[in-house]
Here is the input.
Amino acid sequence: MDILSLANTEFFVASAIGILTAAGMYLVMRMRTFPVIMGVSLLTYAVNVFLFASGRLVIGAPPILTDAETYTDPLPQALVLTAIVISFGMTAVVVMIALGAYLGSDDDHVDDTVSEDAP
Amino acid sequence: MMHWIILPVVLPAFLAPFIVLAARYHIGIQRVISIVGILSLIAISAGLAWQASDGTVTLYQLGDWAAPFGIALVADRLSTMMVLLTSVLAFFVMLYSIGSNWDQRGRHFHALFQFQLMGIMGAFLTGDLFNLFVFFEVLLIASYGLMIHSGGNPRLHAGVQYVLFNLLGSTLFLFALGAIYAETGTLNMADLAQRVTLIDPAATVGIRIAAVLLLMVFAIKAAVVPLHFWLPSSYAEAPAPVAALFAIMTKVGAYAIIRVYTMIFPPDLAVTSGLFGAWLLPAALISLALGMIGLLAAKRLDRLVAFSVIGSMGMVMVAISLFSPAGITAALYYIVHSTLAAAALFLITDLVRAGRSNLDITAQSPIAGAVPTAALYFVAAIAMAGLPPLSGFVGKLLILNAGFETTTMAWIWSVVLISSLISVVGFARAGSTIFWKAASVPHPEDHTPAEPPSIMAYSAVGGLIVLLIAHTVLAGPMTNYANKMSTQLFQPDTYIETVLDTPGKLSGADAKEH
Here is the structure.
């Protein structure tokens, strides 16, 4: 049996999205800036693969309309490009802000500290 | 083709880099450009609103590509009204930030402000879901910069929370979009509205998940409980003019819900029937109650106002979640009111800061300019709490009336009325402690009188209050217009036909392909 058959590929891609999402969610809930940012990055990877797969997986077909019988949907690939650029920029911003917050107050907790002014 | 529709997006997009590149070290020139830009935005959006007021739907195809292949901007009654509201709000907020010198306390305030406007305008005008995502990101990334404007550790800390929460929201948005695309093969709103009706009622799992995911994303933006956690800290810590501008951002979420869930997933659509009614109304009622209770429990004035925003968004969502024409009419009237009232309150919070070291709701010696500030607070609080005679009262009446004939009437009426009472107590307590009790606290020995806020700052807040009063006096025409908007929303055929049948490049190819 061909290990790279369409059914197997779909299984691998779906598992990858699931594992990335689960790991990302776990890290996000750690509530310290470094793990949270790592978690958000994993989540954005997961969503990028998910978007890519939303146009259905096709093996060995061009992403443009040609004379060939099958083709890959090119639109999700364009969407993924946009999403990658945006998530990259956003991650850079959050790293800078988190670094500023950490260096300023020597505290890398994401959640509010209980002491001062809860509501 | 009419090119005016793209101008609210393009104009700020050009002004912002110009401010950064050409007027970087000249605050005077930046201010002039900002004000002139916003004034022309008001003129353009007033023109658009005038044009859409008779019910015409105007389409702008970017690059002349026919929908659904190209991105479409659509101006109908609702979107032009929101655009006009944004530009008017931006004018007074900008006036305040100049009058209070907030724009000089950090760099690039004016450029970020313009980028923020660009994102908000685009989100209101776009007719494409993925484009909506992109404009959300534009407005968010500008808001990150504005939110931490002029720095400070508490602000940076709140900024981290705000950015991370919104990053998660954006990821969720992409998941929702991917799911919708996988199910329907399009992201153009008008095209989607047609295709979801073609989905086999026996295989609706995917589209139902996608619809709920999308609703969750917009609920994060609209700060509906339990997705509201980002709001109190970030709005309280943001610079006051920025928080006032953010008053429109929660409305972007409400707008998106109204748009998507009247056109793409209307309440009578078979594939998603019974999905949202079950939990959106309870969530909205809980946000309303929680916002008003938080308002009463707040120990600082800025947090009090932030919770009042959650409460008023809860009120808007109660009206929206009825998904009836009367409910949407009430929601639209209330959206205008609550944007203006929340912005005025945030600016007043900053006025209170003159001569006070903090915003704790405790009796401290009188602030500079206490009399006009107290008067403005009094009027804005009445409006926000929904007491007669101001527009909050009219809006609440409309919402109660819309909920009158539904099966959930008892819940809606009791929560709305009780939470209003709580908010009145909260506002009264804060106001009397800050303004009245202050008179009995003497100034310390070494007191040097603080500079009272400038006339310009007062006139900005006063302008918002005047708008609120106008919104009350013109409640009749405004309600009529809101009624027309909701009629247009519930009969989206014109919108869909305009978007899909306007010829452009590639038009007709759709028919061949499928």
